[in-house]
Design a protein that fits this description.
alpha+beta; Hypothetical Protein Tm841, Chain: A,domain 3; 2 domains; 6-stranded mixed beta sheet; two-stranded parallel sheet; 8 helices; 10 strands; about 30% helix; globular
């Protein structure tokens, strides 16, 4: 992981922690290469998950390390989620890492699981929001004192102006927990309105990631991420997808692209699981 505040506490005693891949100004390239080499020696493979909003020099550092080591055992997985959503995804992959999946399947599961994370924020302004489509009319409304906006960044972008006549953004139709991180915004809308509307099974609070104000364009926010917390259900989701061998590096994968070498499948096809995986228990694997 590229930031310590994106490593959430484990959900149980079995979930491992994550290693920190530091920014260029915090560590020399020589030391970074040494740390990566040690991780490979200790664990065999490294899945480096990093947000798409990472600084370019930090992303270049990751590619440089892999290039210098000439290793096909390092997967660089770029994730287009807000910071809190990235943190949730990192923890889910940490949970899956103790299961009987190969490194290639765990790495490529990041794209699959990101479709089941409802990541958004309550904002006092969208004037500087550039990662979610915002109309000029909505931009103008954001200058009205007291305005609030509920913005969903994924799995599908959605924006609503919070008010008596407007409901919350569309939420998941499967059981989730809601993780909430408060910035410089004291509204209880997420707790009192969003959580009941989405019928979340539990609500947990955590510290706001340091990069969240930059990602959302304001420090006055409450960030949230609804996600599947149960390892057995995560296991069923990943297990339900057809596995392939990469024709280039031979790593096992799910989906249409290898997470280790980025090679696409020779014959791409839709391998997303059916919605029934999340709604029916009969006939599903029992879990890890």
């Amino acid at each position: 992981m590229t930031s310590a505040d994106l490593v959430l506490p484990p959900t149980d005693q079995q979930t491992p922690t994550a290693a920190l891949l530091q920014a260029p100004e915090a560590q020399t390239l020589e030391l970074a290469i040494g740390d990566m080499h040690l991780l490979l020696e200790q664990h065999g493979y490294v899945i480096a998950l990093y947000p798409s909003g990472i600084r370019p020099e930090h992303e270049r550092r990751l590619h440089s390390i892999r290039s210098v080591l000439e290793s096909d055992r390092i997967a660089l997985v770029r994730v287009d989620l807000p910071p809190l959503g990235v943190a949730v995804l990192v923890r889910q992959l940490r949970q899956l890492s103790i299961c009987d999946f190969s490194p290639g399947v765990v790495a490529s599961a990041a794209r699959l699981l990101s479709h089941y994370i409802y990541a958004g924020a309550l904002l006092n302004s969208v004037a500087r929001l550039d990662r979610v489509p915002v109309s000029l009319r909505t931009h103008a409304k954001s200058w009205v004192p007291g305005s609030q906006f509920a913005v969903l960044a994924g799995p599908k972008p959605h924006l609503v102006k919070v008010g008596p006549s407007a409901g919350p953004p569309p939420g998941p139709d499967f059981g989730t927990h809601l993780l909430v991180a408060r910035g410089a915004h004291q509204s209880d809308w997420v707790h009192e309105t969003l959580a009941p509307a989405w019928q979340v099974q539990a609500l947990h609070e955590t510290a706001i990631p340091s990069d969240s104000p930059r990602w959302w364009g304001t420090g006055r926010l409450v960030e949230f991420a609804a996600h599947i917390p149960d390892l057995s259900l995560l296991y069923q989701l990943v297990s339900s997808v057809r596995r392939e061998a990469c024709h280039w590096c031979t790593m096992e994968l799910i989906g249409d692209r290898c997470a280790f070498c980025s090679a696409p499948l020779a014959a791409p096809e839709n391998r997303m699981p059916s919605a029934g995986v999340l709604h029916h228990e009969d006939g599903l694997p029992s879990g890890p």
